[in-house]
Design goal:
Layout: E1 14-18, E2 21-25, E3 30-37, E4 46-52, H1 56-66, H2 70-77, E5 84-88, E6 91-99, H3 112-115, E7 116-124, E8 127-132, H4 136-154, H5 163-180, H6 183-201, H7 207-247, H8 253-315, H9 331-352
Parallel strand pairs: 4-8
Antiparallel strand pairs: 1-2, 3-4, 5-6, 6-7, 7-8
Helix pairs in contact: 4-5, 5-8, 6-7, 6-8, 7-8, 8-9
């Protein structure tokens, strides 16, 4: 790529040439060369081209110049596409998704598109292309490291990076950055699980607090589900890469194995958080049902006391003219004594049955 392609974004309709093709750059998009590796025998240098918020014209130019496959480009342009890995002819294409930190004041979405963003990567014999709309954070973490690595290798190192090895290692670093982006939210979810667990099994609070715990459990479950799903897909992507990498010699395999261990560790935490959130949700519902049953039991005990007393009161509250007991001198104390006896009898029965 010419020097014009290495600078910042330019004015509207600014065009610059990249190995024989024109990219029309509009305000808001940026195409730049991040790395360049010289090759002998007068060959064109191998380049890492980063495309940020591409326009349709830029996509068409990339497709034409690098002979990208139509289906891969369609997947690249799909904002909600899940991580994938495929090889078409001499091009390797993969998509990674990374966690998106929710800014203060923003409403948190618990979907794949709302919690993550993606970077699409094409690797071919002429270079590596990364295309993204919100992946600058990942690119900014990886590209400076590789500029330093290339500088160190170029100064006195007996074995400089080959384009093939550089493309492989950069791909792993992109995947590693995507995996590591889930480390902080997954650990945060673990802390939230412990707090919610303590809240559920502590003394029951007011109804509003109970509803808040239920809502927090639901949101935690949704988040852990997305984390687990993304890490599972990234792990499957690593498995696809690990096959040819392991067969390529000792220079590649250890990097894949190290990244796989990190992914497995976070995947285990995410799955554990999801399982615990599901269990706590069931426990919470069970405890709520248990508390409701306790209230119903108390009301049932009270009704058992008052039902016979209400019957006696209703019986002697009837307005019939000829009721002999109404004329008795000791009728009122006798009825009161009978009501007390009934109450004591019910109480003794419940005590014997250990209901009270």
């Amino acid at each position: 790529m010419s020097e014009a392609g290495t600078g910042a974004r330019g004015p509207a309709n600014l065009a610059f040439c990249t190995r024989g093709f024109i990219i029309g750059e509009t305000v808001g998009s940026m195409v730049r060369t991040l790395l360049e590796i010289e090759r002998g025998d007068g060959q064109t240098p191998w380049r890492w081209i980063d495309v940020y918020q591409p326009t349709p014209e830029e996509i068409v130019a990339l497709v034409q110049d690098h002979e990208l496959h139509e289906t891969s480009v369609q997947d690249c342009l799909d904002p909600g596409h899940l991580p994938k890995f495929e090889i078409v002819d001499d091009l390797t294409f993969f998509i990674v998704r990374f966690d998106t930190a929710v800014q203060e004041g923003e409403e948190e979405s618990f979907t794949v598109g709302g919690m993550t963003n993606k970077i699409a990567t094409f690797i071919g014999p002429r270079g590596l292309i990364t295309i993204h709309r919100m992946g600058s954070r990942i690119i900014q973490d990886v590209s400076p490291v590789w500029k330093q690595r290339l500088a160190v290798r170029a100064n006195g190192h007996p074995m400089p990076f080959s384009p093939e090895l550089a493309a492989f290692r950069i791909s792993l670093d992109l995947i590693k950055a995507a995996v590591q982006s889930f480390e902080k939210p997954v650990k945060k979810a673990q802390v939230e699980v412990e707090i919610l667990e303590e809240s559920i099994f502590s003394d029951s609070g007011p109804q509003l607090q109970t509803q808040k715990v239920l809502l927090d459990l639901y949101t935690l479950k949704r988040r852990c589900k997305v984390y687990s799903r993304m890490l599972h897909l990234l792990r499957n992507l690593l498995i696809r890469i690990e096959g040819p990498a392991s067969a390529a010699g000792e220079e590649k395999a250890p990097f894949v194995q190290d990244l796989a261990e990190s992914c497995d560790r976070l995947l285990l935490l995410a799955d554990e958080g999801l399982d615990t959130a599901n269990q706590l949700l069931n426990y919470h519902l069970s405890l709520s049902t248990h508390r409701t049953n306790e209230v119903v039991r108390v009301l049932t005990v009270f009704s058992a006391f008052f039902m016979p007393l209400t019957f006696i009161v209703g019986l002697y509250g009837m307005n019939f003219r000829h009721m002999p007991e109404l004329e008795w001198h000791w009728g009122y104390p006798l009825v009161l004594a009978m009501m007390v006896a009934v109450t004591v009898g019910i109480f003794a029965y419940f005590r014997r049955k250990k209901i009270m």
